[in-house]
Amino acid sequence: MMDRRNRVKYPVGEQSFRELRRGGYLYVDKTEYIDWLINQNKFIFLARPRRFGKSLLLSTIEWYFRGAKDLFEGTWLGDHEEDWKQYPVLHFDMSITSGKSAETVEDFLHRKIEEYENEFELEKHSNSKDVGLRFNELIRKIYKKTGNQVVILIDEYDNGILETLYSPEETQEAMSNVLRAFYRQPKAATEAIKFCMVTGVARFGSYTLFSGPNNYFDISMMDDYAAICGITQEELLAYFGSGIERLSNLRKISKTEMVEELRLKYDSYRFSQCKDLVYNPFSLLCAFTEGRLEDYWIKSGTSKVFVKYLSRSEFDLMELQNLWVTRSRMEGKYTSEDTIPLLFQTGYLTIKEVDYNANLYRLGIPNGEVQSALVEQLMPIYMGLSENQFPKRLADLKAKVREGNVSGWIEDVKSFISGIPYHLFGPKDGAKREDGSISHFERTYHIIVHMIFQMLNLETRSEIAVSGGRIDMVVGTDKYLYVIEFKLDGTAKEALQQIDDRGYLIPWQSDGRKVYKVGIVFSSKERNISAYAYEPKE
Length: 538
Known about the structure:
A hairpin with a 2-residue loop joins β9 and β10. The strands form three sheets. The protein has a five-stranded parallel β-sheet with strand order 2-3-4-1-5, with helices on both faces. It has a five-stranded mixed β-sheet with strand order 9-10-11-12-13, sandwiched between helices. It has a three-stranded antiparallel β-sheet with strand order 6-8-7. It is α/β, with parallel strands linked by helices.
């Protein structure tokens, strides 16, 4: 029996640096970045998707400025820092408030300021209703009383912006007014500030909440800070060796194969022009803790506002596979006319390639977790299904695939496709694609089916190269293997014949599972499956 007492403790959801260090959790040392940050600029801004380690980073900075030398023992900063001076720290975690109205956010800020007034034994501001003036005076009074400049840390600054994204315009404006009054105070009291760092999802330059972009040193897309949050490949191998070994033993595969599975599932986030890639830290920690690979980040709490916002927007999901954009577009303000800024900043798209000469960025879906989840979250809305109906439909489809009920699962896939509006997968009304060939439309339907099967968490591979050509798609369960060929406006018989003629079944002759060859025909007119055939028939 495995000795669980010696198993590594992974800090899933632990955002306090002090608790992490005192609790004996695994810690991936990022403290060298802190040394760089505090010597870069007094005002720092960092944008990263949710659950990417921003809160832990700010907590680490907080305890550094509190002079907690003992917590940094064995880290880069613990080995190199000589001056452990203490500073007063004001830490505002905006994710604590619901952010659904200006009143709730303003009330939260007043209560937080009052806590600090009590902590430092200060008199309350005479105009306690004005949250901006109250914050400004808090900073100045602490500086005057302690003789030390103040450190200000603001986490998830845009929580209110994101939560009111699809609210009436007056609600959004009221939220902006409250946040603007609060966030502009550090600049107004700059002589009393030692260091100020703001983190969030949305790029702050797109919103007029601050006193101007020149006041904050934006490190979000700087090469030096590309891996400040997230886990690099080198860190994965250096810190997670025992976790990789445990997973590989559970799945009965080699460590090399296990690392590759982790990479495909959780890696490939890129935040700058340099080629540093990082894993989603939350999903990675959950996978090592639970001993299995699931869609942890996606299931940890995607905002319903986000899903509703995308469902009301016009965009081409196929375009997201290969999209060249400017940096200004990636960093832009969220609008229903252009969802790319939202998708990039929230982590559903990432940088895949950079054209340095043209200063353009090719965006794409980061990994398997995001690719399957992007469609899974949107499909219930597009198909008019409730949150309860959709999982049941998926479960029924998966059961038929696992039972070898070929006609049953094809009819279910057909039903799924029929409920998806064409603008999600095709050009907008009145638009024309440069590539209007049969191969393009066949590939479009192919991707739709591939994504549906990815939602089932089954063995799913597409465009597999073999000696006779490329197999369109292979889906596997513990008992069955489906070798699938797609045709557009052709016949199912032609699809089955191509499987035979090109030897697509040869790689699985000794697989041990029952193999079906499946031909599926898509109709460009009906925009759905129009015919199918499979062998052997029951």
